[in-house]
Amino acid sequence: MKDLLTLKDLTSAEILAIIDQAICLKRDYTPYQDALKGRSVVTLFEKPSLRTRVSFDIGIHKLGGHAVYLDQQNGALGQRESVKDFALNLSRWCDAIVARVFDHQTLVALRQHATVPIVNSLCDLYHPCQALADFMTLREHCGELDKVTLGYVGDGNNVTHSLMFAAAKLGAKIIVVCPPGHFPDGKMVLEAQSIAAQTGGQVTLSSELSALEGCDALYADTWISMGDDTPLASIKAKFQPYQINSALMASSGARYVLHCQPAHREVEITSEVMDGPGSLILDQAENRMHAQNAVLLSLLAK
């Protein structure tokens, strides 16, 4: 693994190794407290962030490294100066670049021109670090991942894409339930299904909530992605039946609920479920740091 732009690029063994390493880190950072000593990681943010920024900053510190945060005060990537020049200059100083961007092509350009590893911390197409943390969380609570069935409910988006590829690579089952017209990218669905056919996994799409029956966990995300200016009122009627609430948890039989946050309480998920005994949402948030640190160790701790 030289970079992490999408989980499509990783093998099943590489994903499992990252999850195993993350679980090991979570137990005890002591053996790794100097793993990135003398290393610096630039974290670029085109979008606002709580979990991604803090988990990378503190996580890098736990490994003995130094995080350099760059926001848009110097201008948007590719505007004040080209992405190529940005990548070439940063590569002379830092050991890796973590980037949270609007457009996946920005990451492609960074990878093309940088001489240090690039990590996608979110773009319009993928959210690989989130999916790694999610399946780490499922591994902790559900056991072997090739026996897990995850139900994603809501809008098909970048998180959905990464969850599909993670499930497919790991031989897990994922059932994606969306309102008509709001499914994930069709090409990515076909790619994930092709991978799943080789691993024993399963990627299923439906608009029927009954398809969620038998899931181990249900997963919610916001109905409107960051940067989308669609008024909530214009889609609420269409999405309201897909809210994760106690009735849906009961009808599906799911023991656990996940949400990548930020969450809109009483919109895509109720507080009763979010704060309930089956909520793994804060475990997910914590596990972002451990999963990301496992990625950085794979890339930098040689």
UniProtKB/TrEMBL annotation:
Domain Aspartate/ornithine carbamoyltransferase Asp/Orn-binding: 147-298
Keyword Transferase carried by entry: yes
Transferase as UniProt keyword: yes
InterPro entries the record matches: Asp/Orn_carbamoyltranf_P-bd (IPR006132), Asp/Orn_carbamoylTrfase (IPR006130), Asp/Orn_carbamoylTrfase_sf (IPR036901), Asp_carbamoyltransf_Asp/Orn-bd (IPR006131), Orn/put_carbamltrans (IPR002292)
Protein name as it appears in the record: Ornithine carbamoyltransferase
Keywords from the UniProt entry: Transferase
Record PANTHER family: ORNITHINE CARBAMOYLTRANSFERASE, MITOCHONDRIAL, ORNITHINE TRANSCARBAMYLASE, MITOCHONDRIAL
Record lineage: Bacteria, Pseudomonadati, Pseudomonadota, Gammaproteobacteria, Alteromonadales
Source organism: Ferrimonas gelatinilytica
Domain Aspartate/ornithine carbamoyltransferase carbamoyl-P binding: residue ranges: 2-140
Coiled coil: none
Similarity-based family: Belongs to the aspartate/ornithine carbamoyltransferase superfamily.
Annotated Gene3D superfamilies: Aspartate/ornithine carbamoyltransferase
Catalytic activity, EC: 2.1.3.3
